[in-house]
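=== Structure Prediction Worksheet ===
Name of assembly: unnamed complex
Input type: mixed (protein and possibly other molecules)
Chain count: four
Listed entries:
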Amino acid sequence: MRVTLKDIAEEAGVSLMTVSNVVNGKKARVSEATRERILRIVRQRGYVPSASARSLAARSSRLIGLLVPAEGDGNLTISPHTVEVVGTLERELRRHDYHLMLRGIAETAEINEALRSWNLDGAVLLGFQDKVIDRLTSRTVGNVAIVAMDSYSENPLTLGVRSDDYTGALLATRHLVALGHRRIAFAGPAFAATGVVRQRFEGYREALREAAIPWDETLQNTVETTHGSGREFGRRLAAEHSGATAIVATADILAIGAMEGLTESGLAVPGDVSVVGFDDTEIARYVTPKLTTVAQDLPAKASVTVRLLLDHLLRAETPEKATTLDVTLIERSTTAPPTA
Amino acid sequence: MRVTLKDIAEEAGVSLMTVSNVVNGKKARVSEATRERILRIVRQRGYVPSASARSLAARSSRLIGLLVPAEGDGNLTISPHTVEVVGTLERELRRHDYHLMLRGIAETAEINEALRSWNLDGAVLLGFQDKVIDRLTSRTVGNVAIVAMDSYSENPLTLGVRSDDYTGALLATRHLVALGHRRIAFAGPAFAATGVVRQRFEGYREALREAAIPWDETLQNTVETTHGSGREFGRRLAAEHSGATAIVATADILAIGAMEGLTESGLAVPGDVSVVGFDDTEIARYVTPKLTTVAQDLPAKASVTVRLLLDHLLRAETPEKATTLDVTLIERSTTAPPTA
DNA sequence: CGTCAAAGGTATAGCGCTAAACCTATCACA
DNA sequence: TGTGATAGGTTTAGCGCTATACCTTTGACG
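=== Predicted Assembly ===
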């Protein structure tokens, strides 16, 4: 059977609460001698506290939900750069004795269910649409620390962490403009849904405005964040003769798909068309030619998330509501001056 | 405050146990009328059962640990193809009302701690070395359903799921042999540690034996599973004039690194050297030329894992101890006959 | 008519832990 | 001599749920 606090208490000849206090490192008054005796017995008997009992009695689970949108078929949508964030997140949280519960969310109501059921102390929402975050009410959020990653929702009940998507696209587009491009296409998913895409679009627009390049609506393309859609887009661009000599894509995988589509259609990258991606996923470094892209600071994203969570959990006072992280343009080999 | 069973019971004018039985869909005798009345109140009040209380009272947490090795610095090591497995795993388990707890494991002792502390009903061990699985004793495993993924440990306390690594390498090497290659290099991490690598090596050896190609030890290379090591290996191979005209690599990323190393050294892939990777990660499809590689059946890996877990959890009788999944060679563009 | 099974519940005793209040001995100090 | 502060504990009352044993009513059937 399980070794419980009671067992340890009996063996040490003290009350159960004394053991509890020692195990939890409380500042409570326990003599050094007793403390050491108890700790020795704890180690020797291999005592491990029961998280459920703790959670029940203390009304705090030391559990953080890692909530990820699940598509209709229930499949999780985890972008490759998100994975890197999760690793760091887990490590940092574990250091503070918090644990992660991974949970796919198909309908918004499930967020509430997950929070309540497991008595989560906090939650990290990965890649939800802004409107989902917007809809969270104090009834479901309660006292839970919620960090919405990559959200531009203004919901005061949640904390936010995101990269500077606007500036990222601004830098990418400026870079193309500086190379001499004037007809620069934008490719990204329908952006009504996600603030991230909208921000990137706005950054792109701003760079064009700076350069006094008139806006041509036909250069704005709705393309899904998949290799297939990107490829199709590349082919279409090649066929259309829209005069575009460069592409700003909202994701590396989309950019790489576009490169393939262009190449298949007989256009060279960056000879005929320059391409810039987004997120600096691993794959950007390994394609040929290597992809110029906007890099996020993923370790920072993770540690800021943890800091926001812990601040909320410990002090219960919210510092900043949202943090926007710097972003850098990584110039590799898919961008060059347009051919005259 | 939280809505509890008691609240529902009072409002429905029945005892707490009746509500509990209804909520848990027990076959217990409750009249249809009562059942419906209770369910209505449950919905209306937004009652969500407390997982910790359940876990404590029922001695079962409905929690499955997703245990991942953490390096010295605490960083998790999650291979890209593992991520896909996790998505499916979560979805399938959630359908059966089990939940996933993600946990990095730095020392073996932490496995025990994780199991005990959270009262896990089961655990999936992702990518641990065989010796770690070997060392698990009945004291730490207890009654927990443990599935060790990609392990070749014979530990009778655990269940195993893996792809047919041996056959994968066999197919890859046969393919090269069939193309006419005779000097085929093998590149993979030091395989004392991982059964996966050893199996792949044995498959490779067998294919050579079949073709009556004498074994040349210098063709066996210890290369880490990173792009950097692969690249270094490619350069070395080009410099050494070992006469190798083909490479079997134990991972796509390693293969892609090798391709880069070779190309940088002036050798063409597949013109001068053919390359086969392993795992068919996304990246294999997007490099140029597209990588020939051995694909695992990841959805199957996930669903078999879930089935093994559930069988153990429900019937508490273990069916097969280990399942080995079929594997397919995906011929793309990095393999060609050697140049005469 | 007796009795026995089944339907439809209820009552009780924890699961392992923590928060909060309480107790006692000892010592300082005015 | 009384007061009170402090160290070093203990006691009590749950947290929200489930397992288990138990109880009552009803109807069937020989």
